[in-house]
Specification:
single chain, alpha/beta, nine-stranded mixed beta sheet, 23 helices, binds 1,6-di-O-phosphono-beta-D-fructofuranose
């Protein structure tokens, strides 16, 4: 197979490991843990995997291990570094016993249920080291939550003599990993389940997990593109660029890209919600920035928009919550698409109906229809960037007539999401992911189940990184999903009292008025460490003490 010159050179990169993982390890156990919320309920739901201690690995003595087999699944949206988790796990498993085997289940959790798998070999793994994408085995969004799926899974796990399953996923997939770990433990099936924190969205993080993998590379890729647009914008001086960024609910990606590129405006959904802003308030905020710049003779600029924005406008959030419940009813499930719209319209409260009817038809349809398998609105399909620019243009027209605005307004639209999810991992993600995978092999060797592989202290050089495991139940609370209360990992949204947002808030007025663009350029894999090995600004600000 023909590969690019970069891919060829990059294949030779040996990702760095924390010092403790470079040889045999011993697990140091902390105190018993509790879930972040609803302790009694979560404890009752996870009697076998609740309350376990946090684990930290330190250098220990080598003990001979019998060969053992491991399976791995890539779940959900792609994120740069997934292949390195697999190569790290492969190397880790082989280092414990060269006769151990690693199997990959194909196209996500569905591969486990349908018994579709592949066995990894040296040659196979080598051709995917340090590459982006999940194409080594494919990914999928099948939800693992039915007993019939768990039972189908155990058949193939037994057939392949698999001792442990590693599930690479976001908050929903790791929640399912925990449910599976509990089920297999309760049934005494002897199969361990380990999770691994993935998602470009950056919303799977907490006291124990510094960041989800892929966030670093995706944000650097989008920031390169935003920087390029800003140079174009500052050269032609005739367009306002409305740039929507992936990230589902949380605005971490938009915030990080703003910190890297200093655009004229960046909306943060969590702030919009906290300030109870209406759609019109959001439009006025943008239009005012456009008008103020026009007054200075600057009819150009850049605006970053998080893809989940619409869900955070309180009136729309309330509408979505009711739509979710109405759509979850068996009656609604059995209807065709257009019948479903009529159905929801006749079943939602009057105030929600008024909001629903006020939205452009395409947005209203999107809110009322497709959900992903986890019940989430598919926000990446809503063209918020066009919705906002159209509404801003209309407001500016009105202001022009009222003499409040003098200028020209022409908009360009962009949506950056898929462009960054499969980029070749940055050095940070290449090292972090390899370490997460390698570390998972140590959790398995230590007999752990229901744990997430965790690498901490990642703003320091890799040798100082801390490796270990965190019980997944520790991150859980109860939330309403598809009309029912469910145990789920608490999603980490942007904290308005956190250092990254505070820094952004202190600088944004200057960025709005002046043209303070930063042009980060493409990810560099070789060169000075300040160019190649920097973590995200979000992580650096969060970890700065
Ligand atoms: P995960 O949470 O599964 O990692 O997915 C992240 C994401 O990229 C979101 O940012 C986006 O909204 C969604 O996936 C898009 O999903 P799809 O790939 O199914 O279009």
């Amino acid at each position: 197979m023909e590969i690019s010159a970069l891919q060829k050179a990059r294949a030779a990169y040996q990702p760095k490991l924390p010092q403790a993982l470079k040889g045999p390890v011993v697990a140091v156990e902390g105190a018993p843990t509790q879930s972040v919320g609803n302790q009694e309920e979560i404890k009752a739901m996870f009697p076998n995997t609740y309350g376990m201690p946090v684990i930290t690995f330190k250098a220990g003595e080598a003990k001979p291990l019998q060969p053992f087999n491991v399976g791995i699944i890539l779940s959900g949206g792609q994120a740069p570094g997934g292949h390195n988790v697999i190569s790290g796990l492969y190397d880790g498993v082989k280092s414990l016993n060269p006769n151990s085997k690693l199997y990959g289940f194909l196209m996500g959790p569905g591969g486990l249920v349908d018994h579709k798998y592949v066995e990894f070999t040296d040659e196979f793994i080598d051709s995917y080291r340090n590459t982006g994408g999940f194409d080594i085995i494919g990914s999928g969004r099948t939800k693992l939550e039915e007993v019939s799926q768990f039972e189908s899974g155990i058949q193939i796990l037994r057939k392949l003599d698999i001792k442990a399953l590693v599930i690479i996923g976001g908050d929903d997939s790791n929640t399912n990993a925990c449910v599976l770990a509990e089920y297999y433990a309760a049934k005494n099936y002897g199969v361990q389940v380990i999770g691994c924190p993935k998602t470009i969205d950056g919303d799977l993080k907490n006291e124990q997990i510094e960041t989800s993998f892929g966030f670093d590379t995706a944000c650097k890729t989008y920031s390169e593109l935003i920087g390029n647009i800003q140079r174009d914008c500052n050269s032609a001086r005739k367009y306002w660029h409305f740039i929507k960024l992936m990230g589902r609910s949380a605005s971490h990606i938009a915030l990080e890209c703003a910190l890297q590129t200093q655009p004229n405006a960046c909306l943060i959904s969590e702030e919009v919600e906290q300030k109870a802003m209406s759609l019109d308030d959001v439009v006025t905020y943008i239009a005012q920035i456009v008008a103020d710049r026009a007054a200075d003779g600057n009819n150009f600029g850049t605006i970053l928009i998080p893809e989940g924005l619409i869900e955070f406008i309180p009136a729309i959030k309330k509408l979505i919550a009711e739509l979710n419940d109405v759509l979850a009813s068996p009656e609604a499930q059995n209807l065709g698409r257009s019948e479903q719209i009529d159905y929801v319209k006749s079943h939602i409260a009057q105030d929600n109906l008024a909001v629903f009817n006020s939205l452009p038809t395409s947005v209203a349809r999107q809110l009322a229809l497709d959900r992903d398998p986890h019940g989430n609105v598919q926000v990446s399909l809503i063209e918020t960037e066009k919705l906002l620019s159209t509404m801003v243009a209309a407001k500016l027209d009105r202001w022009k007539k009222e003499g409040k605005y003098v200028g020209k307004f022409a908009a360009q639209h962009h949506f950056f999401g898929y462009e960054g999810r499969c980029a070749a991992p940055s050095n940070y993600d290449a090292d972090y992911c390899y370490s997460l995978g390698y570390n998972a092999s140590r959790l398995i060797a230590n007999g752990k189940t229901g744990y997430m592989s965790v690498i901490k202290n990642t703003t320091k050089p890799a040798a100082e990184w801390i490796a270990g495991g965190v019980p997944i139940t520790m991150m859980m609370n109860l939330e309403r999903r598809n009309g029912k209360m469910k145990p789920v990992i608490r999603k980490a949204l942007v904290e308005l009292d956190g250092a990254p947002f505070k820094f952004f808030a202190s600088a944004r007025a200057g960025w709005a008025k002046n043209t303070s663009y930063i042009y980060p350029g493409p990810i560099q894999y070789w060169g000075p460490t300040e160019v190649c090995d920097q973590c995200t600004k979000t992580l650096a600000l969060e970890q700065a003490k």
